[in-house]
Design a protein that fits this description.
By secondary structure, the chain is α/β, with parallel strands linked by helices. Helices cover 49% and strands 12% of the residues. Helix 5 runs parallel beside helix 8.
Amino acid sequence: MPAPDISIIIPLFNEEESLPELTAWIGRVAAGQGWSYEIIMVDDGSTDGSWSVIRHLSETDAHISGIRFRRNYGKSAALYHGFDRAQGEVVFTMDADLQDSPDELPAMYKMIKEDGYDVVSGWKQHRLDNKLTKNLPSKLYNATARRVTGIKLHDMNCGLKAYRNEVVKSIEVYGEMHRYIPYLAKNAGYTKIGEHPVHHQKRKYGQSKFGIERFFNGFLDLMSLWFLSTFGKKPMHFFGTSGILMFVAGFVMAIWIIAAKLVHQAQGIKYRAVTDQPLFYFALLAVVLGAMFFLAGFIGEMISRSSSERNRYNIREQF
């Protein structure tokens, strides 16, 4: 059976009201474009009737399939399994709450197929969320993400995205890294990343499943991902360098304190005992921390060398 033109992955949690309307909308768009397609719904442990709705929809529409988790694992887990199943040449992700419009799919599809992009991220230029709890934190979050990742996207966390199929097969989404899939793609060698302004709609059913805490968690995840992508296979470059600098700084401070004491003692000048000087304890702390950082880097190198992933690289082509 030939692969469909597009796959649409919809992670969801308690969205039973919106699913029939969303799938019908996607079907109209796909029919208008003449696409063959599949819709993969991943029920992330819903406690309402979402799974019953998915089962009913799949019985009446062969394009729809579903995956159901036993409990709520999070959006990254849902996308991971959706990516694993997706067969379409272009893979879309979108939220189930009807805030993402399927009418945007043709333009994003064109950017992948005709303009040669690897990833296209939606950009909600005019958000209809609460300005205090959503808009302002989102702007700060995206500014930080642009600075750290080097990817000039205005809305990295937008749920509506399009990918070349090989991209989703080359990355691993885990934890809460779904926010940074463009960065994961960049680290895997897919550097043609663009964005498309999309229409943002107000939530029609239910309530948002995300609170303000996601921005704090998102910042911590960004720091983790940056560190892993930069030093994951060479931990000694970070810990070893930092450790040596701290050790040398502490050692120099200690020698300077001791030398100053000896000079003052030889000249008969009154001096403070070495252990009475706060600088001595800073020097001692720097030496100890420097040694610990260096050992952490050494242990990290040993773990990295033993990892089964140490020689995993994405090969673009060969003959």
